[in-house]
Amino acid sequence: MKSEPIIWTISGADCSGGAGIAADIKTGHSLNVEVCHLITANTVQNSQQLFSVNPVATDILQQQVDALIIDKKPSVIKIGLLANKEQVLWLTDTLHILKQQLKQQLKQQLKPKPTQQNADLKIIYDPVGQASVGGSFSTFTTEDLKPLLPLIDVITPNLAEAKTLAEATRLTVTDSCGPKTLAQAIHELGPNTVIVKGGHAEEENEQCSQSKNCIDYCRHQLSNQANDFIEYQLKSTRINTSVSHGGGCSFASALSSFLAHGYLIRDAFTLSKAFINQGLAFYQSENDYYGAFTQLGWPEHPQNFPQICDEFSQTHNLLAPFKTLNLTKQTKLGLYVIVNSIDWLKKLLPLNLNIIQLRLKNIPAEELEAIIIEAVQLSKNYHTRLFINDYWQLAIKHGAYGVHIGQEDIQAADLNAINLAGLRLGISTHGCYEFLLAQQLRPSYLAIGAIFPTKTKDMTGQIQGLENLSQLLRLSTDIPIVAIGGITLQRAKRVMETGVDSIAVVTAITEAKNAEQAVEDFKTIVTVNK
């Protein structure tokens, strides 16, 4: 039996069953994680009113930690309602100890390899302040929270909660302060990643209530350098429903669950938003009943996924679709071989492949252009589609069929120039955030990887596996999809059975004893699984 990741939720019990611990358990179980819970308070509330908050003593909470740490060690701890200052102080001390203990045990017992994902304990905090029916859950101040916040990996306030937190910084909070400004201020309090949820924006701003869209913003710090951060922004159609009690708790516990499964923050953020959209849409027409948010399991349907609307995507959202690969409905792209020299092109072009990529690395500038000129000329004698990796200016200049661009270079490339020149475009993606963003650019094909660990590139934290590949394929449009990374002859059949249009291989061909025979063996598998 495959063990599920373990998360702890430290939050309040909602007797009406919608929020707090109840939401966390239902969310975690629907997303295939094991949930252990520590109840910080028993609340008395219904759809009309919050009547009372009854804190649990910290010595009881500590006894539960001591019991659970023996055989239920968490990979993620999700924090919700904290009822008083005593609990904040206790939790601060406890998290300090837990992080150090688990890190030390991991080093000594598990000896994690460099490729191991999710090695450190992650702490997610949903700063519950007000009940959705009105009334405050807590008696402490934001000032009391300051010692705790540097221990937080991800904090997930809604807009009102973000403004309250930001007021504890040097920022003068006004109605005009947007999620980006608030997240920057909250980051100064210590959390590594700040996600400001946009679902309650209409309550803060009358103009927002007229908007058909909901914007969620994430600021993720990459290092201790102030300017070393990355932003993610998601846009979804606003879903009006009264069956939403516990939606905020469910978002944070979904995020915790996806992080426990090893997803990077950008993908956990995207999947969590899709999870929320899925639940809200389920009872979209029920607007007269105050009910609990519905947890429906892993999000898979494209209509529930948000649109990427960060600065890059907004700059390029007016691009015309790139030229297609001219494939018929009956023809898949098939085997995609990636090589690094003219000699390999001369060997493989006669083998009747649909597509080849020339990936040149560490070539002196004075030699680079001559190689690309020769490669383009060679390819014109065959029906094979030749893609040049990265060097889009030279690909345009010398009339290549297409250019392939990785995530490291896509923001620096002039996509409009590539498009206007009539070149096809292929884009590498690693996870659902990049996949959705690249799909919005409407390229000629999309590559998903690394499916398995690969010899050619360190893909730590970005190994997709077959299950994730299958999930991403459910989000695909009519753009051909290429699977890449660690695909051997033994693995090729399983990869093709997911429904991909192509498998890309490098060392499985270039390190084969007989490259020509290896190509034929791969082509046989690809043909059988069309």
**DSSP E strands, number:** 20
Number of contiguous helices: 19
CATH class identity of the largest domain: Alpha Beta
Distance between the ends: 33 Å
Main sheet properties: 10 strands, mixed
- Judging by the overall fold, what is the CATH architecture of the largest domain? 3-Layer(aba) Sandwich
Secondary structure elements and pairings:
Elements: E1 6-14, H1 20-30, E2 34-45, E3 50-55, H2 58-71, E4 76-79, H3 85-110, E5 122-125, H4 142-145, E6 154-155, H5 159-166, H6 179-187, E7 193-196, H7 201-204, E8 213-221, E9 229-237, E10 243-245, H8 247-260, H9 265-282, E11 291-292, E12 307-308, H10 311-316, E13 334-339, H11 342-348, E14 355-358, H12 365-379, E15 385-389, H13 392-397, E16 402-405, H14 415-420, E17 424-429, H15 432-440, E18 445-448, H16 465-473, E19 481-484, H17 489-496, E20 502-505, H18 507-510, H19 515-528
